Amino acid sequence: MPYSRHQGLVTFAFLAPAIILLVAVLIWPVLDLVGRSFQDPGGPFVLYARLLEVPIYLRVLARTLLFSVATSLVCLVLGYPVAYALARARPLARAIILVCILLPFWTNLLVRTYGWILILNPQGIVNTVLLQLGIISAPLDIVYNFLGALIGMSQIMLPYLILPVYSVMVKLDPQLANAARTLGAGPVRTFVSIYFPLTLPGVMAGLLLVFTISLGFFVIPAILGGSGGLLLAQLIEFNVNTSLNWGMASALSTTLLAATLLLYMIGDRWLNLGAIWGLRR
Amino acid sequence: MMHSGLAGRLFGAVVVAICAYLILPTLVVVPVSFTETSFIVFPPKGFSLRWYAEFLSDPAWRNATLTSILVATVSAICATSVGTLAAFGLNRLSGVLARAAIWLLLLPMLVPSIILAVGFYGVLARFGIVGTKFGLIVTHTVLAIPFVVITVSATIQKLDWRIVDAARSLGAGPVTAFWKITVPAILPGILAGATFAFLTSFDEIVVAFFVSGVNSVTLPVQMWNGIRFEISPAVAAASSILLALSLVVVFFVSVMRRREETNARRPAEIGHL
Amino acid sequence: MADETAFSLNKREFLTGMVAAGAAAMVPAAAFGADDRLVFANYGGSWEQAMRKAWMDPFTKETGIQVVSASGNTLGRMQAMVEAGKVEWDLVEGTPDLASVGIQKGLLEPLDFKVIDRSLMLDRPEFRSDYMVPGVILGRLLVVNQKLGPVPPEWPSLFDVARFPGKRAFWTKADSGLLEIALMADGVPADKLYPLDLPRAFKKLDTIKKDILWFETVTQSEQFMRDGQAVMGLLADGRAYNVKNSGGPVEILPEASILLWSVLVVPKGAPNKQAAMRFLSYIYTVKAQTAIAMEYNYGPIMQKAIDQLPPERVALISGGPSTKGKGVFLNSAWWNENLERVTEQFLNWRLG
After folding, report:
1. Are A209 and B243 in contact (CB < 8 Å)?
2. CATH number for the B31-272 domain, one of 3.40.718.10, 3.10.28.10, 3.30.750.24, 1.10.3720.10?
3. Do A17 and C8 touch (CB under 8 A)?
4. Domain coordinates of chain A in residue numbers?
5. Are residues A126 and A142 in contact, defined by beta-carbon separation less than 8 angstroms?
6. Cα distance between residue C109 and residue C129, in whole Å
7. pLDDT tens string for chain B (273 positions)?
8. Hey, are the CB atoms on A99 and B273 less than 8 Å from each other?
9. What's the whole-model pTM score?
10. For testing the chain B interface, which of A4, A101, A105, A254 should be mutated: the one with the most B CBs within 10 Å?
11. ipTM of the complex
């Protein structure tokens, strides 16, 4: 497309409302946040030095990243088949699947979390059923640890993966896979080399959503995960609401932001995340 | 990828299992809401409608529900409009500018919400709209923009621009081509984005907690008031009523769809929930 | 800004909605200029209902001033309000750090002690301040499952995993009283607790670390004790009696308790601060203190009110005779100084 001044104006007009809104409402707090993290009376890097010095912070940051990656992967594995079924199902089945995906949203997050406790605890539904059936002899440890946090969090995040993937799959021509198979490709090969790459923009969009939202969560992992669910956002919340240490909260948030940016850049290099927006390398 | 024989059934079973996983913690809440006890317990003890009576008779719950629906609807509309336009703008950019724009548009999602909450408070106070529904709408619009941009961008990327060009060459103006060709073609992405925008607002607690005032309490804030101190089954009743309402909407929509069976198959269900 | 967007899209139906919503929202909450209304940010729930019955409704009847309850009574939100110069709350209830940090950061109005008479208040040095008054005495109590049989009402029982096997439910907060309990169980006398010997406390806690069930919300603590997921726990007093009164299989051992208190403060720039002072003056009467003690088991801050209660009620009151002499007050001054540092070490120990 030839690029002219007129084209540039049109592009700007498309972006203007969002940019105006974001600059007016969002940029100031974010700049203020980054600024505050360098404004300790003791010197600009005092807070960051402390962050490196006190062992808890980097440990929790590492756990937070690990937890978000794990949640994203679980969502991909569970969400991709559902998105596929959704894109290919008959209207009735599609409506039922959509209800399953979207209905949980009507239930408040905390209520759903308590629902999980009722299901997963040692005397809960899952353990009672499995014990009655004689499949297990002692209750499974599936809550108040990393696994419990992962089970609860993945359920909350799944729709954020399914819908973007679905919205790409539904545009793909169902004849495509058939054509590949007629040409002699096996089902696995058809999937790996034809179908999956075509859905990659949706997959990347979904993973990006799940990963970044997971980074900022704290109440649900903390309730379902016990000590295994202690994440960075909880430390930020403590600094904001309990100790009013804005400097430390800012330094932690800036670190989380920087870590996310870094991961994104790495991902962009290796996985071509930019494909979501049609950017070419 | 064909659905025949054993592989197809296995695939179906897997999908059913995942759907069960998705819906189980929500379904557990329904029986709990009929308990006679003043706390949440499973299996529920006795049968009573007292928590429904409490939910329906208390003006605090009613107002919170109406506030949430209003705020979520208006901010979803604003975020979808602004975000869809931005996704188109983004698609026309390249290089450094594109990357800068992407980061700006994703920022609301990347900054922890507790930090945004305090920042928003200052901004809204400067404009004199803190504690109002309008203020809530502005912040929830901002929070929802990334969801719309991401989902719409993913579909724009798959858009076949040749059909738009074809429409233009047949004499359609740019605006007509946009509304008649482009928007319908990317509708799944827009609807997915709008759904996320609505639900982001409808379930958002951290920012709402900070910027809502006495006159603009949303449903999650009202529920949180009930939950932080003691988890009353009224919260379960509230959830169950919302579930029932959305099921009625789904049923209504599917009946309507059956009537216009012959119409083009548009994956429009997303928007109806 | 949002209106411009709607215009640029030319979606008339959305615009109508926007304008309607905007207009509704523009009716400011601060339209009530005169002190005929008071916004009281408190903990909500059944405690709010008790206060409404014992304090707010009689106060409105007497003065004509409406009391509106608000939620989200956190320090962070109060700071945001004061720094933005738009304070919506007139009176705030919270834990002692609300006052100590609030004073330190200059977020509070001095109280008018010409209006509020605190001569009958319990005499503890930390209760005397120009910026706050204590609200009620709160307790954190040892709660045990009935199936354990009789449990000696003392802290070492919590650490006796051989005699009382099962999970122990503790709060995830560093200042829940757990560290103090560990030290007392290890032999430190109650009056020699501060400054806390953290390594010693953690060493003692290590002996039961794998038996701890952490709760993040007080609701969760009730659930743990009610369905027996934990056999022992340190629960907030209101929660503990909630479990017991709703038929939970528990015994409460009030002889072993940690005591603290709530504070009431007026944020700087509160729009109806005269009304707030009058409300405080109202609740600082023997009548109001007795009334609240009849509604809820938090301890009143006046001995005269405790004296007027029937004996069966007194037995349930935090800070009352059942805990007297054995209940240990948290040292809020020390915690205010050290909360952050201790929290870091506490979390590190939990993850270790």
Report:
1. no
2. 1.10.3720.10
3. yes
4. 21-277
5. yes
6. 12
7. 445 678 888 999 999 999 999 999 888 888 988 988 877 777 888 888 988 998 888 888 888 889 999 999 999 999 999 999 999 998 888 778 888 888 888 888 878 777 788 788 878 877 888 888 999 999 999 999 998 998 888 888 777 778 888 888 888 888 888 888 888 888 888 888 888 888 888 888 888 888 888 778 888 888 776 665 566 788 888 888 878 877 777 677 666 656 654 444 444 433 333
8. yes
9. 0.82
10. A105
11. 0.85
